[in-house]
């Protein structure tokens, strides 16, 4: 490699935005892999692992909602698909080769359904955790976005899907455990779940997967696809006139968000030890959205930090005020939407802009484009194009030609 090429690579690596991102990623890795295991008790570390799984869903919502303007109120569906696929595998593994899960002997015919059989294989299970949610999100997204369904209509449709999915699970007690869900797992791919060492291993896996998702999200945001996604959010008709297919762009980001939610659900099962319809319905789906809104939906780390903070607050308040958390959550959501539409991350941006010298770009770049964490406008509001007066406009206004309006 020549000296010029090496210098160019170092210059690109040390750009302000990239340096800040790498520093933040390194700081997060130190906190998750070194500080947290040393300072937290096994119980609190397990709670943090659960919060990290929920934060994976928030990363996908930040992409779909913050960057694409897709108000996804049904991410509990994809979270539940990944979770139930993993739970089926764990139940079959506990039953042994050719065995039947315990609840099927109590509530069913004592035979394993044919669609459970692929989950006996660990490789097939991992593949299905990704493929099943991706296929469902791809079919649903393409069918909806090609018909230009957006805004509140898409939000209501996704929320109805979450409600229908929860009702379906409740009605299939013989095969999904019904209201009780699936629980009582003893091993995770051959590792004893009661062993504290394996529990810490699950935490480290969740932390690593979350950091990988954040890297993927950042790469999508700074790529050309991220630019087109923001353009579709802000002016879909103009993007269509330029030759891009907004439906394809929306479908891709919707599939990415669904896969992230499914992976979070799959890791949630061995960490928490249970999955039930109460974890995948309308209320959990709205809870995912609340954390993203509070943290800052248009930022990279805002959804993650907001989701972890809301989950921690829910656990802490539920221990002291079991019936008061839901009211506090609703009030917090209303306050943030009314006074901080950009989430708590907007406070950091305002402080950063206030400390920027006059004449310098607030985002640390060249000032030619908005920062990647700029707050997203309301996708339901129409985009108003600038109007330049024409000659006929001047004539109707009684102004002479050649003079500015």
Give a structural overview.
The chain is an all-alpha fold. Helix content is 67%, strand content 2%. It is built from 17 helices and four strands. It has helices at residues 3-13, 16-39, 42-67, 75-95, 102-107, 122-145, 152-171, 173-176, 196-222, 224-234, 236-241, 246-272, 282-295, 302-320, 325-339, 345-354, 391-397, and strands spanning 182-183, 187-188, 191-192, 274-275. A two-stranded antiparallel sheet has the order 1-4. It has a two-stranded antiparallel ribbon with strand order 2-3. A hairpin with a 2-residue loop joins strand 2 and strand 3. Helix 2 (16-39) runs antiparallel to helix 9, helix 3 crosses helix 14 and helix 4 (75-95) runs antiparallel to helix 6 (122-145). The protein is globular.
Ordered list of secondary-structure elements with their pairings:
Blueprint: H1 3-13, H2 16-39, H3 42-67, H4 75-95, H5 102-107, H6 122-145, H7 152-171, H8 173-176, E1 182-183, E2 187-188, E3 191-192, H9 196-222, H10 224-234, H11 236-241, H12 246-272, E4 274-275, H13 282-295, H14 302-320, H15 325-339, H16 345-354, H17 391-397
Antiparallel strand pairs: 1-4, 2-3
Helix pairs in contact: 2-9, 3-9, 3-12, 3-13, 3-14, 4-6, 4-12, 6-12, 9-10, 9-12, 10-12, 13-14
Compact overview of the structure:
The protein has helices spanning 3-13, 16-39, 42-67, 75-95, 102-107, 122-145, 152-171, 173-176, 196-222, 224-234, 236-241, 246-272, 282-295, 302-320, 325-339, 345-354, 391-397; strands at residues 182-183, 187-188, 191-192, 274-275. It has 405 residues and is mostly helical. The chain starts with a helix and ends in an 8-residue tail after the last helix.
């Amino acid at each position: 490699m020549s000296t010029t090429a090496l210098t160019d690579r170092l210059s690109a690596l040390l750009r302000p935005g990239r340096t800040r991102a790498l520093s933040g990623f390194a700081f997060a890795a130190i906190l998750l892999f070194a500080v947290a295991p040393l300072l937290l008790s096994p119980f609190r570390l397990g709670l943090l692992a659960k919060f990290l799984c929920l934060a994976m869903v928030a990363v996908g919502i930040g992409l779909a909602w913050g960057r694409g303007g897709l108000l996804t109120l049904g991410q509990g569906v994809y979270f539940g698909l990944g979770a139930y696929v993993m739970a089926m595998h764990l139940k079959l593994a506990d039953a042994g080769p050719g065995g039947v899960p315990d609840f099927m002997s109590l509530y069913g015919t004592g035979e394993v359904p044919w669609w459970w059989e692929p989950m006996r294989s660990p490789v097939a299970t991992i593949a299905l955790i990704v493929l099943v949610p991706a296929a469902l999100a791809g079919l649903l997204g393409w069918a909806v976005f090609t018909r230009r369904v957006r805004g509140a209509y898409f939000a209501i449709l996704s929320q109805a899907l979450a409600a229908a999915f929860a009702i379906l699970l409740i009605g299939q007690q013989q095969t999904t455990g019904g209201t009780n869900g699936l629980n009582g797992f003893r091993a995770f791919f051959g590792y004893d779940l009661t062993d504290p060492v394996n529990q810490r291993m699950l935490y480290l896996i969740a932390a690593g997967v979350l950091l990988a998702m954040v890297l993927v999200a950042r790469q999508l945001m700074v790529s050309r696809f991220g630019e087109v996604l923001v353009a579709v959010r802000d002016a879909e008709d103009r993007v269509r006139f330029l030759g891009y297919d907004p439906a394809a762009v929306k479908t891709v980001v919707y599939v990415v968000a669904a896969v992230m939610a499914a992976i979070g659900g799959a890791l949630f099962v061995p960490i928490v030890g249970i999955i039930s319809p109460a974890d995948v319905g309308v209320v959990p789906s709205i809870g995912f959205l609340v954390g993203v809104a509070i943290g800052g939906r248009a930022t990279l780390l805002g959804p993650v930090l907001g989701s972890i903070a809301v989950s921690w607050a829910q656990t802490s308040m539920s221990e002291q005020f079991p019936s008061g958390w839901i009211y506090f959550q609703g009030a917090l959501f209303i306050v943030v939407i009314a006074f901080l539409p950009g989430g708590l991350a907007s406070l950091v941006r305002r402080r950063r802009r206030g400390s920027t010298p006059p004449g310098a770009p607030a985002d640390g770049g060249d000032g030619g484009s908005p920062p990647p964490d700029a707050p997203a406008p309301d996708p339901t509001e129409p985009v108003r194009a600038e109007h330049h007066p024409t000659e006929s406009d001047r004539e109707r206004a009684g102004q002479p030609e050649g003079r500015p309006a």
